[in-house]
Automatic annotation (TrEMBL):
It comes from Zhihengliuella salsuginis. Pfam families: 4HBT_2. It comes from the Bacteria. This is Acyl-CoA thioester hydrolase. InterPro entries: HotDog_dom_sf.
Amino acid sequence: MADPSKTLPKFTVDRAQPSTASVLRTVEWVDTDASGHQHNSAVIRWVEAAEAKLFRELELPEYFPSAPRVQQVVNFTSKLWFGQQVTATATVQRIGRTSLTLAFEVVGHAHEQRPETVAAHGTIVVAHVPAGAASARPWPDAVRAAVSPAEGGPR
């Protein structure tokens, strides 16, 4: 008989809380444009790092090769500067039959007389398209069981 302690996931899902992960980054020179503040693409890279952390913690490595983006909405609300620390947070907002919506927020920490502020927020929608499929398919039961959406929609 298998030892049950070896079959339990290392990360437990708290159904009372939505599935969320955050990463701390520093705005590097490569992340800036000629004016010295963040390039728009840096925000999405940081959010994708939070998304990757989330799905690693949920022990769902199969998510990435089968979850292409179908929509990205980014609202830029403040500039981020070279050397500034930022926290990017990704939260599963909703899981549908074949799609999943992540809400995200990127917060710039206080830096050089500038207060902490939300620099960007938005959503990313992915579809479940398994390898070899030409279109979206329903999410596997393992994904539905592991993910806890912020909205009380169907699983």
